[in-house]
Each structure stands twice: as C-alpha cells, then as structure tokens.
Task: inverse folding
C-alpha cells in the first residue's frame, strides 16, 4: 500500500466529513472535534506506516501548522462579532482577560510545580499555554455569522468569542517569561526588566498599532475606494480575507509586535469601517471554510500523536493537574472574575464552564520548546494534551444541550418581557 495514496484518500474523506458533520451533528451531544480526534486515533493506530505526527519530534512543523490554524480562526472570530469595541459593552471580556486569565495561569503553574513536580519554568509554560481559550474548537459556544445587529449577541456567546479572540495574544508575555526563566534559571535578575519592556509593553503596543493600521487601510481599500477596480467589496472575493490575515500577522511580526493580536484587531477594524456591509459575510464564510479544513487536519494529527504515545509521560499527578485545570481552575477563576458583571447567574455559570483548550495551547508549547530547553517538556506536552482531550470531549458533549437550554430560557424571557 502506497502511503501517499492513502494520504490522499484520508484528506478527501476528512474534507467530505468536514462539510457534512456540522449539519449531521447539529443539536446533538457530540461535536466535530470529538469525531476527528477519534478519527486520528483510529487511523494512526490501524495504519502504522503513516508518518509519526509527534510534535516533540517535529517541533517546527507543529509550530507552523498550529500558527496558521490560530491566525485564520482569529480573523474569523473578529469578523463575526457585531458588538462595537468599548469599555462597557465588552466589560465581560475585560474581566475574563484581566482577572480570570492571570488567575488561571498562576493556579495552573502552581499545580504543575506543586503536584506534578515540574521546575518553575516548565510549570509557568504549562500554565501560560493552558490559559488561552481556543477560537478553533469552540464554534459551538461562539456567536454565529456577522449580522450587523450588536443587540442580537447573547452575553455567553459574545464573551466566549471575544475572549478567545484576544487571549491568544495576551498569554504570549507569560510564555516569553517562561522562556526567559528556562534560559536564565529561576532568578528574576537579568531578564525581568527586559521582559516587561520588550515582551509586554512594546510587543503589545506593536500588535495594537499593527492591527488597527492594517485593518483601517484595508477597510478603506475594500469599502471606500472611488475606483471600481480597487473597490474589492463590490467583487465579493472571499479569499481576500486570507490576504488581510497574513498581511496583519506578517507585517506586525516583522515590526516586532504580537501578530495574533494584530489579526483580531484587523478584523475588528474592517468591521468598524463599514459595519453592516454584506461583504463581511463573504469574508467570514471563506475564512470559516478554511478554518474548518485546518481544524480537521490538526485534530487528526493530534489524534495520531496520542495514538503514537504523546501521553506516555503522564503521571497520576499530571492527570490530577489536567482534571483540576478543566473542572476547577477555569470555572472558579472565571466565576470570580464575572461577579458583579453583565449577564444572569446562568450566563456566568455557562461562561465559567466553557473554556475550550486546543490549538493555541499546542502552538505555544511548540514555540516555547523550540526557543529554550525545558526540563520535563515531554510531561508538559502530555499534561496539556490530556487537558485538550478532556476539554474537547466534555465541552463537545455538553455545549449543544446547555446552549440550547440557555436559548430557550432567553426566548421565554423575551416573550414575557418584549
């Protein structure tokens, strides 16, 4: 059997399933990520001749594949949000980013050091890589297509979507702190000041400026050009969304900023230029299709890595850390962050319960381990992989029923008090 021919067949099967499954699984306690994770497990277990997709053995490939998956998803998340950016309208988001995320990083790092016995740098890497929620795997709990109606976005879906759009970038300074610790030892002297200036202030500022500048420039080209040849919105070409994604990311990274932040803010700037234009739907639909195909690829490879032994370094302490992160740390930190904020008690509970970990976690691990040597890196990877598996399965089963219940309650409230 030719491995290349088998690969072609599997790619075709995956693409076909990516088109069919969202409709077949609608309103059922099962998600597309669960199916493709299981498919990867099965395929790589049955066909031993397939190449080993171990991210520890191929860190560069793991880094760049996950990097593409994340930035495409960030563009999609930014385009689908209808609510204008603001301090009050986004208050749940700011609470999740400013309170819940640092608490989650600290708690996960503490558990990794105390329970799992990781060295401080590796424990911080584990905490910071598990902090961002995933825009790739969380479609069941995110807002839908761009509709131009900010009032139509319920607080649960909006908070989870906007959080996932921003925390991939905002977790990066903590990853850089872990890299600096691994390179310099546990002491703070010699790297803390440079980290605060370079990796926190300057890179975040570069991401903000890069995203807004590129987004506004492209928004003017798309929607306000006087020449029909340059007025891209009138041509309805969806692949231009990839141009916006890679321009924002690449130019910002070249300038020394956080490209993840730039991509999301570029999408928000495009929406702000002409908020209700139908071209946003075209861009979003194209990005969503590319995102779905990348999700299939990454999940099948992840399942294959698990089948080939990615979890081999797990200890019972690491299993306890993984369970605690999903079942205790995320819900508790998020609940504390949202006390006194927008939304009902049920909304806050749903936001606290759903915080799917996934592709962003793998990107950070691949990036960090390629930059510095982390003692116990195989255990960090195994623990993070278990967190993603538990998160994908638990949230994939629970998302449909819980979100449907919230929607029914919301419709009943509107019927009583229109």
Result:
């Amino acid at each position: 059997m030719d491995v290349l021919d088998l690969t072609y067949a599997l790619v075709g099967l995956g693409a076909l399933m990516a088109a069919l499954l969202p409709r077949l699984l609608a309103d059922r306690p099962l998600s597309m990520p669960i199916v493709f994770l299981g498919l990867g497990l099965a395929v790589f277990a049955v066909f031993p001749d397939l190449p080993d997709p171990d991210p520890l053995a191929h860190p560069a490939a793991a880094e760049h594949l996950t990097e593409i998956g994340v930035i495409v998803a960030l563009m999609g998340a930014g385009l689908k949000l209808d609510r204008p950016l603001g301090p009050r309208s986004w208050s749940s988001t700011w609470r999740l980013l400013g309170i819940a995320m640092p608490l989650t990083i600290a708690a996960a790092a503490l558990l990794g050091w105390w329970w799992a016995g990781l060295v401080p740098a590796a424990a911080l890497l584990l905490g910071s890589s598990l902090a961002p929620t995933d825009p790739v795997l969380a479609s069941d709990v995110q807002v839908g297509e761009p509709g131009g109606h900010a009032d139509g976005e319920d607080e649960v879906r909006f908070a989870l979507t906007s959080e996932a759009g921003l925390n991939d970038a905002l977790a990066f300074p903590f990853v850089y702190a872990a890299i600096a610790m691994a390179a310099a030892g546990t002491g703070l002297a010699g790297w803390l000041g440079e980290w605060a200036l370079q990796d926190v202030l300057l890179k975040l500022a570069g991401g903000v400026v890069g995203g807004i500048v590129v987004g506004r420039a492209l928004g003017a080209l798309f929607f306000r050009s006087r020449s029909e040849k340059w007025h891209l919105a009138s041509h309805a070409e969806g692949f231009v969304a990839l141009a916006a994604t890679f321009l924002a990311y690449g130019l910002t990274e070249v300038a020394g900023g956080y490209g993840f932040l730039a991509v999301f803010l570029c999408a928000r700037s495009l929406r702000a230029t002409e908020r209700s234009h139908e071209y946003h739907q075209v861009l979003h639909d194209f990005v969503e299709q590319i995102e779905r195909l990348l999700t299939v690829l990454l999940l099948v490879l992840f399942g294959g890595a698990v089948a080939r032994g990615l979890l081999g370094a797990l200890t019972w302490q690491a299993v306890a850390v993984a369970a605690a992160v999903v079942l205790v740390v995320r819900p508790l930190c998020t609940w504390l962050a949202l006390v006194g904020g927008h939304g009902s008690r049920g909304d806050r509970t749903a936001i606290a319960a759903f915080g799917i970990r996934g592709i962003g976690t793998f990107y950070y691990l691949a990036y960090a381990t390629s930059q510095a040597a982390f003692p116990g890196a195989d255990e960090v990877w195994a623990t993070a992989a278990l967190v993603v598996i538990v998160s994908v399965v638990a949230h994939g089963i629970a998302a449909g029923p819980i979100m449907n219940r919230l929607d029914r309650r919301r419709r009943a409230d509107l019927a009583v008090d229109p």
